[in-house]
Amino acid sequence: MKYAAKTITGIRKQNQDAVFIPERGMIAIAAVADGMGGHNAGDIASALAIKTLVENMHKNAPGTIRERLINAVNMANSAVYELSFSDEGYRGMGTTLVAAVLEEKRFIAANVGDSRLYHYDGLHLKQITEDHSYVAQLAALGYITREEAARHPQRNIITRAVGTRPIERVDVFECAWEKGDKLLICTDGLYGELSENELTDALGQSAEELQSACDALVERALNAGSRDNISAVIIYNDGENAK
């Protein structure tokens, strides 16, 4: 596997996003989190969620990868939720979280919130995760279109988050992928400003330009007017050992 990651503050005063890509020898997992909360709470929530997730995935716990991933997200939820009661400034903090465990022929992804994971097979781009947001619910019920949802004034309201409840539902996806495929994990600060064609163009660049493609995507979202922190992780399946 090859990885690239980029996160920037953008026009905000503080970066409340967090990203993770593995170092050599670590379990092949990548993640993105978009924190929320006053003061430093969003920053702390996203960092704690990813730290707890990764630590739990590295434990030699019993169960399938799917079961271990769900448990790791649940542990992240508990960690953020418990910390939110330790300080008045942390009350109500939470974070989105998308994580993917990578194998040669498949990936297993978990999602809470409205950050996204896309799969690019060299020709087509497919959104794998489903947004846990108010506008996504409206679109699913047929009240608005996906295009209207992208511009809706309440598009930032999320219906699930890590750390805001004692227990949170986790979506899990198991998907096949092949050598040459890529994954994009990103926050709404990125996908909210770029079309799927723009995402596809960036992912279509050669694997040797993975980091430059990631950097360019983030820069393009900023130049397009993103008013949020902007984060992206790109993973390339090179057909070699997943670690």
Mind explaining what this structure looks like?
By secondary structure, this protein is an alpha+beta fold. It has a single domain, classed as Phosphatase 2c, domain 1 (4-Layer Sandwich), CATH 3.60.40. The chain is built from seven helices and eleven strands. Strands 2, 3, 4, 5, 6 and 9 form a six-stranded antiparallel β-sheet that branches. β7 and β8 (125-127) form a beta hairpin. α1 (41-57) runs antiparallel to α2 and α6 runs antiparallel to α7. The protein starts with a strand and ends in a 7-residue tail after the last strand. 44% of the residues are buried.
Task: Give me the secondary-structure topology.
Blueprint: E1 2-8, E2 17-20, E3 29-36, H1 41-57, H2 65-83, E4 94-95, E5 97-102, E6 106-112, E7 116-120, E8 125-127, H3 134-140, H4 146-151, E9 171-176, E10 182-186, H5 188-191, H6 196-203, H7 210-223, E11 230-236
Antiparallel strand pairs: 1-11, 2-3, 3-4, 3-5, 5-6, 6-9, 7-8, 7-10, 10-11
Largest sheet: 6 strands, antiparallel
CATH level-four homologous superfamily name: PPM-type phosphatase domain
Number of helices: 7
Order of helices and strands: EEEHHEEEEEHHEEHHHE
The low-confidence parts are none
Q: What is the molecular shape? A: globular
CATH topology, which one? Phosphatase 2c, domain 1
The fraction of residues assigned to DSSP E strands is 15-25%
State the helicity in percent bands: 25-40%
Secondary-structure content class: alpha+beta
Head-to-tail CA distance between termini: 7 Å
Whole-angstrom Rg: 17 Å
CATH class assignment: Alpha Beta
CATH architectural name: 4-Layer Sandwich
